[in-house]
Amino acid sequence: MPDSDMNWNELQGEIKQCTKCREEGFSKVRCPDIRVPTLEPQNVKLLFVSEAPPLNTQFYFYNEDSNDRLRNRIFGILCDVSYEINSINDFNDAGFYLLPTVKCPSARDGRNTAPNARVIKLCAAEHLKREIAFIKPNGVALLGRTALQGFLRLCKLWDVHDSVDLGRGTVSEVAGNVLEVKILDKGVKVIPSYWPTRRHRKYHEISEHIRLLMDEIHF
User: Fold this and answer.
1) Residue 91 CB neighbour total at 10 angstroms
2) What is the pTM of this model?
3) Which of 56, 123, 158, 186 could covalently link to 102 via disulfide, CB atoms 3.0 to 4.6 Å apart?
4) How far apart (Å, rounded) are the C-alpha atoms in residues 154 and 161?
5) Strands 111-113 and 139-143
6) Tens digit of pLDDT for each residue in 149-177?
């Protein structure tokens, strides 16, 4: 269950100070990381769940002083589905929000790398679970493998796994399939999709998945 008196700023303050990966000996994780959302979520209709903040930059998505690639791609995808979003305030006001599955970057040989399964499991359980419980979105778009694996972990914690068929957790198996799950006391529609990099041969399908989810939640 969510913390009954949970305050968003307090929750984000905990995340900014979290060193659990270090305590667990996950040496590839650079923690703590202070890059948290700059706006409190309100009336979120569609929550995007991404991977993790990138390694070699002090900025990530919510800092508009940076030319963030993920933000540019998400705004472009929303433009494809007829939403003109030019700023984080536009994004927030329109009922969108974005959270990373893992709150700190991972490194291999000094370069950015995807978080491993143990890190995803820990961070999803410690932080993402409480964030989603606070937000209570109508729909969730899982962007890529890390988001899908984190959501699988949450399904077990929320005891909704009997109503969810995500196969072996491979994005290509389930991308574009709308799932209906009960998170705490609310029914939520969830769609797995691909990580939004233009190098992905199915990049064009992401906007189709978002449009499908929007139809399902009557956005």
Assistant:
1) 22
2) 0.93
3) 123
4) 9
5) unpaired
6) 999 999 888 866 555 666 666 898 999 99
Terminal Cα distance for the chain, rounded: 27
How far apart (Å, rounded) are the C-alpha atoms in residues 156 and 137?
Answer: 19
What is the Cα–Cα distance from 33 to 16, expressed in whole angstroms? Answer: 6
Strands 179-183 and 186-193: antiparallel
- Nearest 5°: the CA angle 75, 147, 14 is 90
Q: What's the confidence (pLDDT) of residue 57? A: 78
DSSP collapsed to 3 states, the chain: CCCCCCCHHHHHHHHHHCCHHHHCCCCCECCCCCCCCCCCCCCCCEEEEECCCCCCCCCCCCCCCCCCHHHHHHHHHHHHCCCCCCCHHHHHHCCEEEEECCCCCEEECCEEECCCHHHHHHHHHHHHHHHHHHHCCCEEEEECHHHHHHHHHHHHHCCCHHHCCCCCCCHHHHCCCCEEEEECCEEEEEEEECCCCCCCCCCHHHHHHHHHHHHHCCC
Provide mean pLDDT across the span 211-216: 97
Task: Report the alpha-carbon distance of residue 10 to residue 33 in Å, rounded.
Answer: 15
Instruction: Provide the 10 A C-beta neighbour count for residue 203.
Output: 15
Cα distance between residue 31 and residue 173, in whole Å: 32
Question: Are residues 147 and 49 in contact, defined by beta-carbon separation less than 8 angstroms?
Answer: yes
